[in-house]
Amino acid sequence: MTETLRKSVSALVDQEATEFESRRLADSLKSRSDLKSYWESCHMIRSTMLGEPVVDRTLLERINAELDGAAETSAIVDSPAVQDNAHVTFLPTKEPLPNRFAALGGQLAIAASIAFAVVIGVKVVAPVETQPAVAQSEPLEIIKFQMPVQKETVSVSGMTAETTQVDRSGPRILTEQDMKQLVSDRLSSYLIRHAENTAVVGGTSVLPLARIMGRDEPIE
Amino acid sequence: MVSQVEPIGNIDADNEQLLVDRARLGDRHAFDLLVIKYQSRLLQLVSRLVPNQSDALDVLQDTFVKAYRSLSSFRGESAFYTWLYRIAVNTAKNHLIARGKEARDLSFDDSGQEMERHAVFQDIGTPDAEADAQQLQAAILDAIDRLPDDLKRALTLRELEGLSYEDIAHTMNCPIGTVRSRIFRARDQVIQEVSLRFPETFL
């Protein structure tokens, strides 16, 4: 340690150091342990001259050990190794309450604004009431292929009865004619239902110029 | 030959405040300097309240630990030693209450000077440590006694009378820089001499 540095320590002991000296010494404390030793010696001289008890160096070690113990505890909790441990559960860091309330309030305000705009938009753009007849109409039927039935006449001891017997001979392959017939029937059914709904509501039909008639049979 | 003129520059009236500020920011080295500075003075105080030497050291340790953890509450409205003094007295009283003893009725002012002036010197520690401490103190006093007169006088005015460098300069009729240099040379000479006899204890 240079004489200049020792002189600065001596002045700092007496609180007579310049601001520059004080800051330089304070900055050098971490890297120079001899500064602390010289500081301790200067104060030991003072304590001896004043008749104060000499304190063993172990006191400072004990103080630092206790403070380090607390610091190590917090360091262990903060260390990534412990945070990766599955046995330790860390609560998420919570924002201060005012910030959380402010964020929640903002979200609610945005949601309310969107809902208001949607309601107003529906009122202005689509003022026509929903058509109840259409809404209450039957759901569209799924095309069902019904197994063909076979009629036959049974005669038992003079009595004649016509029975209906379901063909359980297994699935029957539909011909092209059968498919055309099924499609034609279903299409006719749709057209008739559409015409009925249009008549009830009084609105304009989607197919204003279409003739409502079945392919095979006229509408009654 | 001591230089007669030495620029002092802008003297910071409260060098200690810098250490306190650093310690408040978590600088343990700065806090170590504060502990070293006040440990003997506080031990003398605590030893009057807690006669058991081992307990007195425990109280002193607790005092500094509490002080470090409470540094954020130190607002600088009083001197740092006054703040430490109150913590030490409260810690000692709590220690006595916990031990079932009745704390002495202490009256003290903020500076704590009154009680310390009448403090009785007590060596702290085991008999061996006590003997070592006595030898060390004797060696320090012997080294001071052998200092040149100008150095010894400057050091005595500073340590025993508590005069500032400026007041010592007026008393000794010399520049402040000379006072500063004399006090440093006195300390440095004592440290070098005693460290030869106590290399592990001193410096």
Biggest pleated-sheet summary of chain B: none
Mean pLDDT of chain B: 83
What is the global morphology of chain B?
globular
Count all strands of chain A and give the number. Answer: 2
> Averaging pLDDT over every residue of chain A, what do you get?
69
| Poorly predicted residue ranges of chain A | 77-98, 130-135, 140-144, 214-220
Label this structure with key terms.
heterodimer, A: 220 residues, mainly alpha, two-stranded antiparallel ribbon, 56% helix, rod-shaped, B: 203 residues, Rna Polymerase Sigma Factor, Chain: A, Arc Repressor Mutant, subunit A, 2 domains, 9 helices, 66% helix, 0% strand, disordered N terminus
Per-chain topology:
The complex is a heterodimer of chains A (220) and B (203).
Chain A: H1 3-13, H2 19-28, H3 33-50, H4 58-78, H5 80-83, H6 97-125, H7 132-136, E1 149-156, E2 159-166, H8 176-201
Antiparallel strand pairs in A: 1-2
Helix pairs in contact in A: 1-3
Chain B: H1 15-24, H2 28-49, H3 53-69, H4 80-98, H5 113-117, H6 127-145, H7 149-159, H8 165-172, H9 176-197
Helix pairs in contact in B: 1-2, 2-3, 2-4, 3-4, 6-9, 7-9, 8-9
Describe the fold and architecture.
The complex is a heterodimer of chains A (220) and B (203). By secondary structure, chain A is mainly α. Chain A has a domain at 3-83. Chain A is built from 8 helices and 2 strands, in the order αααααααββα. In chain A, strands 1-2 form a two-stranded antiparallel ribbon. The longest helix of chain A is centred in the middle third of the chain and has 29 residues, at 97-125. The N and C termini of chain A lie far apart (120 Å). Mean pLDDT of chain A is 69; it is low at 77-98, 130-135, 140-144 and 214-220. The two termini of chain B are 26 Å apart. Chain B is globular, with a radius of gyration of 19 Å. In chain B, helix 1 (15-24) packs across helix 2 (28-49), helix 2 packs across helix 4 and helix 3 packs across helix 4 (80-98). Chain B folds into 2 domains: 15-117, Orthogonal Bundle (Rna Polymerase Sigma Factor, Chain: A), CATH 1.10.1740; 127-197, Winged helix-like DNA-binding domain superfamily/Winged helix DNA-binding domain (Arc Repressor Mutant, subunit A, Orthogonal Bundle). Chain B is mainly α and 203 residues long. The chains are: A mainly alpha (220), B mainly alpha (203). At the A-B interface, helix 1, helix 2, helix 3 and helix 4 of A face helix 1, helix 2, helix 3, helix 6 and helix 7 of B.
